[in-house]
Write a structure and sequence with these properties.
Elements lengths: L6 E5 L4 H11 L4 E6 L12 H10 L3 E6 L5 H15 L4 E4 L14 H26 L6 E5 L8 H4 L2 H20 L6 E6 L7 H7 L1 H5 L6 H12 L9 E3 H7 L24
Helix pairs in contact: 1-2, 1-9, 3-4, 4-6, 9-10
Length: 273
């Protein structure tokens, strides 16, 4: 299915997974809305919404960078209105923005708990709500959320219950939207990696360069997203996908090119057995 001229709204697309998805779809001729906070470059993170937009336009897409903190409803509404006035509508929403703190109950400050739920759950809900009237008019409309399979083994709760429930809430939103929006022919799916992904969060917050070297590149999720979003919205909905499974269904089983370090042992991501 062609993405030429389709408009894709991505939260948190300044770098990492969101940017990789934007670049992948921009190469197919899509219009990309980059809704994120990074207006000035952070040396530890790199990039801004404007540099990301320039990269997407350089590979053949059109891009609109709009500052947005998805904790604030009025900012979301302004970005959506600007997206529609610029490109005429919204066909795809990718809920990529997320906050993480792998801390137990005692270690989790209230402000950190609130941040994870304000971005991961409330923000995802508000962005989707704002985009729905336009998705309903879109071409093969899809909602794709970066959230995991619902694995209820206690080990995924014991060490970082606040983060876990925030990500699981995102997946439950997917399940709810798939049912709620079926008659409107809007697909809702989630996507999660089998292995850790080399992102700023991995390098700065989790395992540093050691874990980054045991990870895959964000492009694996970008390719998986491309295949999901290419599927008919009426039949591909309500799934909590793993990237490897999506690619295998497309006949892609040699994933060695996605490794940060060729041949290195890969580290399995959270919530995946």
């Amino acid at each position: 299915m062609s993405f030429a001229g389709k408009t894709v709204f991505i939260t948190g697309a300044t770098r990492g997974i969101g940017k990789a998805m934007g670049l992948r779809l921009a190469r197919e001729g899509a219009n990309i809305i980059i809704a994120a906070k990074s207006v000035e470059e952070n040396p530890k993170l790199g990039g801004t919404i404007f540099s990301a937009a320039a990269e997407m336009e350089a590979v053949g897409g059109k891009a609109l960078a709009v500052p947005c903190d998805i904790r604030f409803e009025e900012q979301i509404q302004q970005v959506v209105e600007k997206a529609v006035s610029t490109f005429g509508g919204i066909d795809v929403l990718i809920n990529n923005a997320s906050a993480i703190s792998l801390t137990n109950t005692t270690q989790t400050e209230v402000k950190r708990f609130d941040l994870m739920h304000d971005i991961n759950v409330r923000g995802t809900f508000l962005v989707t709500k704002a985009c729905l009237p336009y998705l309903a008019k879109g071409k093969n409309p899809h909602i794709l959320t970066l959230s995991p399979p619902l694995n209820l083994h206690p080990k995924w709760f014991g060490n970082h219950v606040a983060y876990t429930i925030s990500k699981y809430d995102m997946s439950m939103l997917t399940i709810g939207w798939a049912q709620e929006l079926k008659e409107q022919r809007i697909a809702a799916n989630s996507l999660w990696p089998r292995t850790t992904i080399d992102t700023a969060a991995v390098r700065n917050l989790l395992g540093g360069q050691v874990l980054a070297n045991m990870s895959r590149k964000p492009e694996i999720l970008a390719d998986a997203a491309y295949y999901i979003l290419s599927k008919p919205a009426t039949s591909c909905t309500g799934n909590l996908f793993i990237d490897e499974q999506v690619l295998a269904a497309e006949g892609i089983t040699d994933l060695s090119s996605y490794s940060v370090v060729p041949g290195a042992e890969l580290y399995t991501d959270l919530f995946v057995e």
